[in-house]
């Protein structure tokens, strides 16, 4: 906590020290017109070589204030068009007036405003993946981007569907109510928000505030630590930020299963100088389920404010509130020996049927607060100070469990979890600089991070409520029935209090050896402190070192790169795990080491972006699960190897056409163990394919109309490490038809056209065929 307070003081001191305005400097103002003489709104104007830029207003006008004296190149940039440049000379206490003309008409500009965002679908520029500003072709790390534009095009209304768009990734729904993914054969939660640790373990998040989702592949402990990452990688949610012009969108989506969703996204400068910018995203959603059991009612509110203190310092404040009242998915296990069932398809209960009443629900709240202060120390060095606070509260959660104990017999159980509180307090300080030593060019990252994790809660449990024959008449288990059993004093148990601290220091350098050869050298020191929790009342501490190495060679300058990397991940598990039979397992640290090689390309001026890689991830003394008498035990007696390859293609080769193709092959095997040796790890499908193609018509009778189609194909996986119960393969195809101009957008989406029945790695079923219709008004 002292570390956190110190960083907070640093932010305050920085803001107070540099909050003075820089009077006496010059101003650049002007107006931009189209080739036919109309004002050009929404055009990006910037001074080359600086961080000073803005968008023209509705009259095509712009103003850049507090500019240092000197000569500059004023640039106008539009997606898909050549940059226009004009020389200007700035003097102190004077205003330079400039008039510039585009090479396109007003009609063409309107199309650029609509379609310009579509280029974001192929844009992989990010500062979060490497925690420094290096481009994709210089980065030996493999990562995938799912943009807000793609989510909008696919009429995505929930987090599970948003996660389906990345190659080599499948979404999973946790019985506790959260969401995550399987990546490179490993369970990978949504562990980061804007690069800082977050959590969706017991609550979800709304997609309305997502600018893009970043999937960072492979063990990523060096830059993200053990809390935010798994051996499969990191999922980082990047939220929307305020902009310099006024704009807004309100939307309504309706559809199958009683879907009704209302959204709003409003952005505006607060003052005339546009030094204070504000944005608000909000969403209200109601929906039932395709199943007899299931419903959701949620509310999301996400305000953000950006304050440009001066040309060197900006401070961003944002918050995200998400409240939900919903049903938890039913978790199903099978006694294979007694039932003879070897696949979830064998289960005789109808796909949409439930043995529980729909009043068994949950209520969750989450609040996330974030502050970022960016300071430009010099032209070569920047400082970024970040603080966040995440509070996830489960007031109560009724969770349902089915166990097939005989061919037609089902044991039913309900548990109540809550109240449960999880909080994360994060602080992070990064310095990034560029410098030369002789002919070598360096980009250097120096950083420290701190996370304080606190959790406590209660639960109510009992033995199986009953066993029913599904072919006979039975009553649904209701909340009233569950309460009579579970709300007895002897059924209430405390989950205890856990408090962990994660302190990290890391350094990463990208060395530009020549104009085509780059090397990345990274190292993290991490200290894990378990103050309370688990079975060790005296606490527990552990230190870890995590290296990362990479090499990139651009075969074709700025177009094609060959790369290789070594990456390390680690897990500071609780030192002891209580088994279902009361015994205690002493857990040792688990490390994963990845070797990866591949090729990246950005062709047709960045309109076609591809990545292909082959990787091997090796783990010693791996943790694994073993089901004995329908109880899950944890073992640490083996080695594990996950290997495979991935292909990611993002293309916007011609105006209006978007192509997204992804394929991942993975084999995650238990290499050495006392049991299940040679088997595939539970929940890890070998083949995952993602595909989406859309086209928006231009200059024809169908102008502004668009169509799209695509989906996911996933091969079979196993529910258990013993490979006795199969989760079937599936293919889901979706289609969309939409119309969009500068004022409004309407779309129709048909999901799961083939009406497939399919399950994720937790055995949670997903919706049958359904549709949604959305209408958005822009202003």
TrEMBL record:
Residues in TonB-dependent receptor plug domain copies: 138-229
UniProt-listed Gene3D superfamilies: Carboxypeptidase-like, regulatory domain, TonB-dependent receptor, beta-barrel domain, TonB-dependent receptor, plug domain
Domain TonB-dependent receptor-like beta-barrel: 334-753
Transmembrane as UniProt keyword: yes
Keywords: Cell outer membrane, Ion transport, Iron, Iron transport, Membrane, Receptor, Signal, TonB box, Transmembrane, Transmembrane beta strand, Transport
Highest taxon listed in the record's lineage: Bacteria
Gene Ontology terms, MF aspect: siderophore uptake transmembrane transporter activity; signaling receptor activity
GO CC annotations, alphabetized: cell outer membrane
Membrane topology: Multi-pass membrane protein
Subcellular location: Cell outer membrane
Signal peptide range: 1-19
Any single GO BP term: siderophore transport
Record NCBIfam families: TonB-siderophor (TIGR01783)
The family this protein is said to belong to: Belongs to the TonB-dependent receptor family.
Protein known as: TonB-dependent receptor
Organism name: Chitinophaga cymbidii
């Amino acid at each position: 906590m002292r570390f956190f307070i110190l960083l907070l003081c640093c932010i305050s001191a920085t803001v107070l020290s540099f909050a003075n305005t820089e009077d006496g400097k010059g101003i650049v103002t002007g107006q931009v017109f189209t080739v036919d003489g109309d004002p050009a709104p929404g055009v990006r104007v910037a001074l080359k070589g600086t961080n000073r830029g803005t968008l023209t207003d509705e009259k095509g006008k712009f103003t850049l204030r507090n500019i240092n004296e000197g000569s500059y190149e004023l640039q106008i940039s539009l997606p898909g068009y050549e940059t226009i440049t004009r020389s200007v000379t700035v003097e102190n206490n004077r205003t330079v007036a400039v008039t510039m003309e585009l090479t396109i008409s007003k009609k063409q500009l309107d199309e650029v405003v609509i379609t310009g965002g579509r280029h974001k679908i192929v844009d992989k520029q990010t500062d979060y993946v490497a925690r420094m500003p290096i481009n994709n072709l210089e980065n030996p790390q493999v990562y995938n981007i799912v943009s807000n534009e793609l989510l909008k095009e696919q009429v995505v209304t929930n987090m599970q569907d948003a996660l389906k768009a990345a190659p080599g990734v499948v979404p999973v729904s946790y019985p506790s109510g959260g969401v995550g993914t399987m990546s490179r054969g490993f369970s990978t939660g949504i562990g980061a928000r804007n690069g800082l640790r977050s959590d969706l373990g017991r609550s979800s998040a709304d997609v309305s505030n997502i600018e893009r989702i970043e999937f960072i592949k492979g063990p990523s402990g060096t830059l993200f630590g053990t809390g935010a990452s798994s051996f499969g990688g990191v999922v980082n949610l990047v939220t929307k930020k305020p902009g310099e012009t006024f704009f807004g969108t309100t939307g309504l989506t309706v559809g199958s299963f009683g879907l009704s969703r209302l959204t709003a996204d409003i952005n505006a400068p607060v003052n005339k100088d546009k030094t204070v910018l504000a944005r608000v995203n909000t969403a209200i959603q109601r929906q039932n389920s395709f199943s007899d059991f299931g419903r959701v009612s949620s509310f999301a509110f996400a305000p953000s404010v950006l304050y440009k203190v001066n040309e060197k310092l900006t401070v961003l404040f944002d918050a995200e509130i998400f409240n939900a009242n919903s049903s938890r998915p039913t978790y199903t296990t099978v006694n294979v020996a007694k039932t003879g069932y070897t696949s979830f398809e064998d289960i005789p209960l109808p796909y949409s049927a439930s043995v529980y009443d729909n009043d068994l629900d949950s209520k969750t709240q989450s609040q996330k607060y974030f502050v970022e202060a960016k300071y430009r120390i010099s032209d070569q060095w920047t400082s970024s100070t970040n603080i966040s606070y995440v509070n996830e509260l489960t007031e109560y959660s009724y969770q349902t469990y089915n166990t097939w104990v005989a061919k037609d017999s089902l044991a039913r159980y309900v548990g109540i979890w809550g109240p449960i509180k999880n909080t994360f307090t994060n602080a992070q300080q990064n310095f990034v600089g560029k410098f030369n030593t002789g002919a070598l060019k360096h980009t250097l990252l120096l950083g420290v991070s701190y996370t304080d994790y606190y959790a406590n809660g209660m639960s109510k449990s009992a033995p199986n409520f009953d066993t029913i024959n599904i072919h006979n008449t039975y009553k649904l288990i209701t909340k009233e029935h569950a309460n009579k059993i579970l709300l007895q004093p002897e059924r209430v148990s405390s989950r205890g209090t856990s408090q962990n601290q994660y302190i990290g220091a890391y350094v990463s350098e990208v060395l530009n050896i020549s104009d085509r050869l780059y090397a990345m050298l990274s190292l993290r020191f991490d200290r894990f402190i378990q103050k309370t929790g688990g079975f060790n009342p005296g606490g527990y501490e552990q230190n870890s070192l995590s290296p990362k190495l990479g090499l990139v060679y651009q075969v074709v300058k700025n177009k094609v790169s060959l790369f290789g990397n070594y990456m390390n991940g680690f897990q500071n598990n609780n030192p002891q795990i209580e088994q279902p039979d009361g015994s205690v397992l002493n857990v040792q640290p688990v490390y994963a080491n990845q070797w990866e090689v591949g090729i990246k390309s950005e062709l047709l001026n960045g309109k076609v972006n591809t990545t292909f890689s082959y990787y091997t991830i090796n783990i010693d003394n791996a943790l694994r699960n073993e089901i004995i008498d329908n109880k899950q035990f944890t073992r640490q007696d083996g080695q594990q190897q996950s290997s495979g390859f991935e292909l990611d293609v993002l293309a916007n080769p011609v105006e209006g056409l978007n192509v997204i193709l992804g394929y991942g092959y993975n084999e995650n095997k238990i290499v050495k163990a006392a049991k299940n040796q040679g088997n595939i790890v539970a929940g890890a499908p070998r083949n995952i394919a993602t595909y989406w193609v859309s086209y928006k018509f231009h200059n024809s009778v169908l102008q502004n109309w668009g169509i799209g189609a695509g989906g996911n194909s996933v091969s079979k996986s196993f529910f258990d490490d013993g490979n006795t119960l199969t989760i079937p393969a599936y293919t889901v195809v979706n289609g969309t038809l939409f119309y969009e101009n500068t004022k409004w957008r309407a779309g129709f989406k048909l999901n799961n056209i083939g009406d497939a029945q399919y399950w994720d790695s937790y055995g949670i079923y997903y919706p049958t065929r359904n549709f949604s219709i959305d209408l958005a008004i822009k202003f």
